[in-house]
Every structure is written in C-alpha cells, then in structure tokens.
C-alpha cells in the first residue's frame, strides 16, 4: 500500500526582516521578525509526499527535476525530524503502520515561475513539512511544525500560518522556543493587499544564507539593529496590525526594509540587493505618500525589498488600482510578467 498526502503553503514577505543567525545549523536568528503571508492562490508551493516499503531511498523532485538530498543538509534534516515525530506517535500507538521506517518520495512544485526572482524556499519548506505532517497523521500545531520548517529555511517557519505572523527568535540553545506565532489571521485585515513588482528575474548575486552570515561577521550596524531597533519595532508593528493602523504599519515596514539594506551595505565586502529600478520605485512610493500626507492624509503604500531587486508594495484595497496605474505609467514594461519588469499579484494578501 502506498501512503500519500499533499499540502500547500504560500510565500510570505517580511515587514521586519530576519537577517542573521546565531546558530547556522539549527537556523536560530539574531532577531525576531514579522511577515505577511500572501494569498494561497497566487504564490504557493504544493508538495506531495509518499511513503512505501518498496522505496530504496528518500528522493525529492522540485518542479519536475530530481534534486539530490544531501546527507545532513537542510532537506535531510527536515525529513529526519518529521520521521522522528512519526516514530514517537508509533511508539504511543503500536497499531499504526510503521511509516517512520519507510523511505519517502517527495515532489514539490511552485505555481509561480522560479524565474520571477521570488524566494521559493519559504513556501517550499513549509509545504514539505506540512505534507509530511499530513502523511504521518501528526497532531502537531502550526507553531510546532514551524520548529522543523525553520531548519529548512528560516523564513519558511512563518509560512505555516496565513495572515500576520511573527517568528520569535527564542533564547534556548536547542531552538525549542524559536518558532512562528500568529499575530492576526488574514480575515482580521482583509483590506491589505500586496503588489509584487518583478524588477529582474536574474538569479541574485549573494544568497540570503551566505549574505547574512557575512553581515553577522562584519557589520557593526547589525549589532545596533538587533539590540536597539528591532525589539521596539516588533511591538509597534504588532499593535498597528491589531488596530488596523495602516499608517504605522507602512512607516515601520519601509523603515525596516531601509535598515535591512543599510545593514547589507555595512557588510564587508558590501552587498547590494536593490538596483536603479528598485530605487526609482522607492521614490515613486515616497512621492505618492507625500501627496497624501501634504493633504493631511495617511501614508497609502509601503515598499519592502528582500534579498533582491524586486519590490513588494503593501497597500489597502482602495488604492490598488491607482498604484498599479502609477507603476505601469512610470514603468511601461510592468504589465508583462516575462519582461525584466513584471507586475502581478494585485490581489495578494488575504
Ligand atoms: C531578506 O530564510 O532565505 O527574505 O534561513 O538561510 O534559508 P535561510 O535564509 P532565508 O532568509 C530570508 C531573508 C529575507 C528576510 C525575511 O524573509 O525575513
């Protein structure tokens, strides 16, 4: 008999960025972070896991191509951790089939082109852990599963929840308190939307993993950020989300994106993730907000950039049409996804 289960997980985009590890094997961060999980339908990974006594080794396919599972690598760690949880369950329930002793075959695909330049590791590892949890019929909560997804890729732990999610860095050396928690479900603030502007689909120059390690080793600004900036921002943005205060949410999101890129620049040698188009989009959003603020109104949009040049713009539903028109007007290529600059996902977060 073949045992099989399928699960999906969406991409998440951080408003307070995770950048830096205090333990590279367990993937324990140097600061808390907070993100918004995007709409399931638009950007997600879907993973099917199978267990069968006839399988002769664990195998993995990503978007149809088989990938090597490196011994002691991140995928191997996640699979081993999930098998351990299944073995615990089998010890409690001796009549359950011994799935923990079978090899697994895992196939994962993204519903967005890898060439879109969007990180797929967050949704990928979250979907992998969810599909194994379903295959193994584990009673684990999303926070418990986040402990394992975290060991695949740090940001993956936040994709176990929809809506607004914090990753609490924790303090335990074994990582047992470094997990994701829900700040608010997506239904709490459905008016928030995310626009994703694909500025370039080139593979990024410096990976998040190696870039953040170099920052930990060389940046003094990172130490200031960890100690004196992020803790306060986590409090203020969590409150803003609870109160649906877009003005504060937007202000902190932009400040934190700016500081993350400042920390990248403070790394030796410096890391540049944004390009001229990224900076032009920042100017556009700053100007768009200034017009509103000068008229006595609130901030209407927030830009944020991860470890690459693509912009994510958070805004309220009522402004989506206006912003899309503005972006397309200034960057005419923007509505062609395959071109160097594409725009999609206008009904992102909910
Ligand atoms: C800039 O989660 O990709 O997107 O843990 O080494 O796999 P690893 O790094 P990863 O880093 C994400 C960095 C970021 C900020 C964020 O998502 O919080």
Q: Percent of residues in helical segments?
A: 25-40%
Any idea what the radius of gyration is? 20 Å
Number of helices: 8
Query: Approximately how much beta-strand content do the residues carry?
Result: 15-25%
Helical/strand content category = alpha+beta
What's the CATH architecture of the largest domain?
Answer: 2-Layer Sandwich
Strand order of the largest sheet: 1-6-9-7-8
Q: Mind summarizing the main beta sheet?
A: 5 strands, mixed
What molecules are bound to this protein? ligand DP6
CATH class category of the largest domain: Alpha Beta
Distance between the termini: 38 Å
GO molecular function, one term: kinase activity
Organism: Thelephora terrestris
Catalytic activity: (R)-5-diphosphomevalonate + ATP = isopentenyl diphosphate + ADP + phosphate + CO2
Keywords: ATP-binding, Kinase, Lipid biosynthesis, Lipid metabolism, Lyase, Nucleotide-binding, Steroid biosynthesis, Steroid metabolism, Sterol biosynthesis, Sterol metabolism, Transferase
Report on the architecture of this protein.
The chain has 350 residues and is an alpha+beta fold. Helix content is 37%, strand content 23%. It has two domains: 185 residues, 2-Layer Sandwich (Ribosomal Protein S5, domain 2); 139 residues, Alpha-Beta Plaits (2-Layer Sandwich). It has eight helices and 15 strands. A hairpin with a 5-residue loop joins β13 and β14. α2 crosses α3. The longest helix has 24 residues. The protein is globular and about 70 Å long. It starts with a strand and ends in a 6-residue tail after the last strand. The structure holds ligand DP6. The site of ligand DP6 has 15 residues, from α4.
């Amino acid at each position: 008999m073949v045992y099989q289960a399928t699960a999906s997980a969406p991409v998440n985009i951080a408003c307070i960025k995770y950048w830096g590890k205090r333990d590279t094997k367990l993937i324990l961060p140097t600061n808390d972070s907070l993100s918004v999980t995007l709409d399931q339908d638009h950007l997600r990974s879907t993973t099917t896991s199978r267990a069968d006594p006839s399988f002769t080794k664990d195998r993995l396919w990503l978007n149809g191509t088989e990938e090597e599972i490196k011994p002691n690598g991140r995928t191997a760690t996640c699979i081993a951790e999930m098998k351990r949880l299944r073995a615990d369950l089998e010890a409690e329930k001796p009549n359950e089939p011994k799935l923990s002793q079978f090899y697994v075959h895992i196939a994962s695909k993204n519903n967005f082109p890898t060439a879109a330049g969007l990180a797929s590791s967050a949704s990928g590892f979250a979907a992998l852990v969810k599909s194994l949890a379903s295959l193994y019929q584990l009673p684990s909560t999303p926070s418990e599963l986040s402990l394992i997804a975290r060991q695949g890729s740090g940001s993956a732990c936040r994709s176990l929840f929809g809506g607004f999610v914090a990753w609490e860095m924790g303090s335990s050396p074994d990582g047992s308190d470094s997990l994701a928690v829900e700040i608010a479900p997506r239904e709490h603030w459905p008016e928030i939307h995310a626009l994703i502007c694909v500025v370039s689909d080139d593979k990024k120059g410096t990976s998040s993993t190696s870039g953040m390690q170099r920052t930990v080793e060389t940046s003094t600004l990172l130490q200031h950020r960890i100690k004196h900036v992020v803790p306060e921002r986590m409090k203020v943005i969590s409150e803003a989300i609870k109160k649906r205060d877009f003005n504060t949410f937007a202000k902190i999101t932009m400040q934190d994106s700016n500081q993350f890129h400042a920390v990248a620049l403070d790394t030796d040698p410096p890391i540049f993730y944004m390009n001229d188009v990224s900076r032009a989009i920042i100017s556009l959003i700053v100007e768009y907000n200034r017009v509103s603020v000068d008229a006595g109104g609130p901030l209407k949009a927030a830009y944020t950039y991860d470890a690459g040049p693509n912009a994510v713009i958070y805004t309220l539903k009522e402004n989506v049409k206006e912003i899309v028109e503005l972006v397309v007007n200034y960057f005419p290529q923007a509505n062609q996804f395959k071109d160097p600059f594409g725009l999609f996902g206008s009904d992102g977060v909910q």
